Amino acid sequence: MIVWRDSMSTGAMPLEREEQMYDDAFGYWLSGFTDGEGCFHGRVVPSRQKSSIIVSFSIALRADDLRILEEIRQALGVGGIYPVPSREENWQPQYMYSVNDKKDLAQVIIPHFERYPLRSKKTRDFVIWKRLVLECKLKCINGKPTPEEVLAEATLLAQQLKEGRAYQEVEWVDYPRPGKGHRKNTPSCPKCGETDPTRFSKRPNDTYSSWCKGCINAHNKAKRSWPRDMTR
To answer: Which residue intervals of 132-224 are DSSP H helices?
Structure first.
């Protein structure tokens, strides 16, 4: 037997369900905000008597940003806001906006991110999580596949969702640093406008210093005459 449970069932600030409307500006902002702070949660809790499949969408912020969560809840018209218990001594108080109801996830949250797509790695999380909500949860409620088939598919999707959150090793990109010491392929001094390559320090990788030699020497000479507290 499979039971669908909300990941949170107590402690929420209730919200009266009313039709909510928001413009594209808010929609794109919320998706961008979710790219950084949101979470698509899904897991399977096995049991001999009845296994539970838990799905939710949440955003957690420090307590001093509670107003942002209230605006999101008011705009979407679904979900609740929950206090997050402190995990350690120096942990700042937090609140979490969470949507757990299967109909709200299917009819509000999923359509939102289909209309206002995510752009970060979280896009992959959403695709897997969407399948977990629609293909598994709704099929289970409708009673089409057997419980064993639903549980096997849900377990696979939940594992993919967990693995996708792990850090992916990538090739490090060494971007040039702006300002003093920045290396360029074409010489151009921002201080005096010099462009003669012979007036610049040449680097081993065929790049040039940011300032020309004359400006660097003048700067170092002037720096030696500064008071000691100005050179720190």
So the answer is: 138-142, 147-164, 213-224
Q: Is this prediction's pTM over 0.70?
A: no
Same domain, 46 and 134: yes
Same domain, 123 and 199: no
Q: Containing domain of residue 128, as a range?
A: 2-164
Choose the most confident range, by mean pLDDT, from 96-110, 140-154, 197-211: 96-110
**Residue range 167-180: average pLDDT?**
65
Q: pLDDT-derived band of residue 14, with 50, 70 and 90 as boundaries? A: very low
Q: At what angle do helices 122-131 and 147-164 cross, to 10 degrees?
A: 170
CA distances from 221 to 81, 179, 182, 200 (A): 61, 19, 20, 17
C-alpha–C-alpha distance, residues 89 and 194, integer Å? 57
Would you say residue 173 lies in a domain? Answer: no
